[in-house]
Specification:
Elements (H helix, E strand, L loop, with lengths): L2 H25 L6 H29 L3 H23 L8 H29 L2 E2 L2 H20 L14 H25 L7 E3 L5 E4 L13 H35 L6 H10 L1 H12 L3 H26 L13 H20 L1 E2 L1 H19 L2
Antiparallel strand pairs: 1-4, 2-3
GO molecular function: potassium:proton antiporter activity; sodium:proton antiporter activity
Protein name: Ca2+:H+ antiporter
InterPro entries: Alkaline_pH_Ca-Antiporter, NaCa_Exmemb
Length: 373
């Protein structure tokens, strides 16, 4: 890439987050005008793309799997901020904001990001390979997190409906943090090699770790540029959270005017906040680094549950109204199918385009049934 191209991309990725924060501050109290909302929407998209760029710069500097972890946590910060801000704003869907958004994030990551990554990678490289040991441990952690926080509340009897009692919610929050912390330690310290890109033979069988020194990519950015990108990443995330909050009434009105169930708002929010992950996963799959794509997908699902639920549990101390976390029967079935399909996908350590299609059909079923329950 030429110096001019790098400088051009660098300039817009600096200018857009700053402009987004300025517009956020200027329009916070008055943003009902269609023109203003259009500007906010455009800057929101720009801030998401800028966040992807800066997260990748930082990731390139620190290496894998730390890079995937940073982007996953960054995206989860967006999600947590949006959920808390929407819940504090009140409204008819306040009690299910957390559940709808977290479950949508799980379905989008486990089926959407995984599916598109496998499809893109397999179409370009015939077969894609990854470390089944590392990816399998990530999947099992996601499954337990989802079970404790989203499935069990549908069957407990201490609280009314699909809610946890106070002590049950506290247990789920602590359990989520413990599981997430244990996985991060495993991924970054204890068994880091299990989450690095792998090399494979012509049949897709893993032959070892990929030699990153001969991949033809640019050297890691200087420390100063990485720190600058880290700061701009924070600015971009603040802009995304704030601008999405300003757009949320428009999203809610749009969903209502179309006659869709209120849960569709959670799907839209999850699609919005997971855009950076999706873009990064496709880029890595295209470069035959599906392991990184899977790290992003399962890491995001894990962070979405493991960080969001404890935050919401603490926030519920001062938030009024019930907090429904339990899934409805249709979503329980979709989660069960997703877990079964994901298990078969991960167990082999390699995948064809078919597996990607299967996951994407499951995502399509989730979106369609959210609109037409």
């Amino acid at each position: 890439m030429s110096t001019t191209a790098v400088r051009g991309r660098f300039q817009w990725t600096v200018a857009v987050p700053i402009a987004a924060v300025v517009v956020l501050a200027a329009t916070w109290a008055n943003h009902e005008s269609p023109v203003v909302l259009t500007v906010i929407a455009a800057l929101l998209v720009g801030a998401i793309l800028a966040a992807v760029h800066h997260a990748e710069v930082v990731a390139h500097r620190v290496g894998e799997p730390f890079g995937s972890l940073i982007l996953a946590v960054a995206v989860t910060v967006i999600e947590v901020g949006l959920i808390v801000m929407l819940m504090t704003g009140g409204g008819e869907g306040t009690s299910t904001y957390a559940r709808d958004t977290v479950f949508a994030a799980v379905m989008i990551t486990l089926n959407g990001i995984v599916g598109i990554a496998l499809l893109v990678g397999a179409l370009r490289h015939h077969l894609v390979s990854f470390n089944a040991s590392g990816t399998g441990s990530a999947l099992s952690t996601v499954v337990v997190l989802a079970g404790v926080t989203l499935v069990l509340p549908s069957f407990t009897t201490s609280a009314h409906g699909l809610q946890y009692s106070g002590s049950q919610l506290a247990f789920a929050a602590v359990a989520s943090l413990v599981l997430y912390g244990a996985f991060v330690f495993t991924q970054t310290v204890r068994h880091r090699d299990f989450f690095l890109p792998v090399s494979s033979d012509e049949f897709g069988r893993v032959t070892g770790l990929l030699d990153e020194d001969e991949d033809g990519h640019a050297d890691p950015p200087p420390v100063r540029e990485a720190w600058l990108s880290l700061g701009l990443l924070v600015v971009a995330l603040v802009a995304v959270v704030g601008l999405a909050k300003l757009l949320s009434p428009t999203i809610e009105d749009g969903v209502k005017s179309l006659g869709f169930p209120y849960g569709v708002v959670g799907v839209v929010i999850a699609l919005l906040v997971l855009a950076p992950e999706s873009i990064a996963a496709v880029r890595n799959a295209n470069r035959d680094r599906v392991q990184i794509s899977l790290n992003l997908a399962y890491g995001s699902a894990m962070a979405s549950i493991g960080l969001t639920i404890p935050t919401i549990a603490v926030a519920s101390i001062w938030l009024d109204g019930p907090l429904e976390l339990g899934l409805e029967p249709t979503h329980l079935v979709l989660l069960m199918l997703t877990v079964a399909v994901s298990t078969f996908t991960v167990a082999q350590g390699r995948a064809k385009a078919l597996q990607g299609v299967v996951h994407l059909v499951l995502l399509a079923a989730f979106v369609f049934l959210s609109i037409q329950p």
